[in-house]
Amino acid sequence: MSSTLILGIDPHSVPGMDGDGVRAALDRELARFAEHGIEASITLITLDETAESTVVAALTERAWDVVVIGGGIRKPEPLLVFFELVVNLVRRHAPGAAIAFNTSGGDSVEAARRRL
Questions:
Q1: What global pTM score does this model have?
Q2: Residue spans of beta strands (DSSP E) within 1-116
């Protein structure tokens, strides 16, 4: 079975965001992975001193076929340096994994399938 890790920002850590609503949408997306026969796990990152170690722990948990880096990490210009860090951590700690990008939490399956 193919495996996918999705990396995203913890919606509960973003002021003004409906963390519960976003988390429910992410859980629905995880269910869609199962419908496609893809084992998937999501790691939600808080942008604090634990961010890098959280990413490394998720990447080294197992061998991943694809790592999807979410738009919450990629899109906001103030997170450019963090996005670079995440890409390089994937290269270093999951070198056999393809890297994919979603446009929202609702199309991670499609992003992963492009690289599987």
A1: 0.94
A2: 2-9, 38-45, 66-69, 98-101
